[in-house]
Specification:
Radius of gyration: 18 Å
CATH topology of the largest domain: Rossmann fold
Strand content: 25-35%
Shape: globular
Largest sheet: 7 strands, mixed
Strand order of the largest sheet: 3-2-1-4-5-11-10
Order of helices and strands: HHEHEHHEEHEHEEEEHEE
Length: about 260
């Protein structure tokens, strides 16, 4: 995990077309309201979920390793009313090793940051930190994608895929984002992924930026065993943000709702 990996691309994050229409924000805001707060969001990034949660009246702390994503979040938060800003605490921290001195009624990991942890030791370190910070009657929501075996069985060709169409930045730059899988390690269960930004400036100059990172994929029972090993019991498993049960759609999501396991 590299805190500098978003240095060149953090400014584009909130404009990527599919991110603007993801259905997860309402799901996490509803969960936050049901908990009553306070909430901890791990991997809060630019505040895509964090700020709507604060707008809904819930006190929320967000942590992220990237100072560049947090800079965007701070700028967005500065445009909110004072009462919304007062509900938010933001800290730069590593999800594998953080100490906030507070217990939370809800802890969330929205939109796959857990999958940036490649090694099992790092996954366990993260989950143990979560367990330490979760209130006795609190809930933990972990969101990862459900691996689609036919796709994983295909040979990696490095072809670029369109990520939802062109978008325009406030300064007039036009941006097309594409993505590709460069390499797959089937033994360690991760893929080397590239997010590629093709940028056209108003004067016509073009540039290409590449955000490269490894991404771990995890299977259902693997996650359940990790959670059990770290002191959690799975309360619900959803295939989508409308709370459809797992298995009702393919490939669907893996959205785990867990609580502390009773001793």
């Amino acid at each position: 995990m590299d805190p500098e990996q978003y240095a060149a691309t953090a400014e584009f994050y909130d404009y990527v077309v599919p991110y603007q229409t993801r259905q997860d924000v309402a799901f996490f805001v509803e969960a936050a309201q049901a908990s009553g707060g306070p909430v901890l969001e791990i991997g809060c990034g630019t505040g895509r979920v964090l700020i709507p949660t604060a707008r809904a009246g819930i006190a929320i702390t967000g942590i992220d390793l990237s100072p560049h994503m947090l800079d965007v979040c701070q700028r967005r938060l500065a445009q909110e009313p004072a009462e919304v800003q007062a509900r938010v605490q933001i800290d730069q921290a590593d999800m594998r090793d953080f100490a906030l001195g507070q217990a939370f009624k809800l802890i969330t990991l929205p939109f796959r940051p857990f999958q940036h942890l490649i090694e099992v030791a790092d996954q366990i370190a993260c989950l143990r930190c979560v367990h330490k910070h979760l209130a006795a009657d609190g809930r933990f929501i972990l969101d990862v994608f459900n691996p689609f075996l036919p796709a994983l069985a295909r040979e990696v060709g490095g072809e670029e895929q369109d990520d939802g169409g062109e978008f325009t930045m406030p300064d007039g730059r036009r941006v097309q984002r594409r993505s590709r899988v460069v390499k797959r390690d089937v033994f360690k269960q991760y893929q080397d992924v590239e997010l590629i930004y093709y940028i056209t400036h108003p004067a016509g100059r073009t540039e290409r930026l590449v955000h490269a990172f490894p991404m771990r994929y995890l299977f259902r029972y693997e996650v359940e065993h990790l959670l059990a090993r770290c002191g959690f019991a799975v309360e619900a498993l959803y295939a989508d943000y409308d709370k459809r049960p797992f298995g009702s759609t393919t490939p669907g999501e893996l959205i785990f709702v867990a609580r502390k396991r009773g001793e």
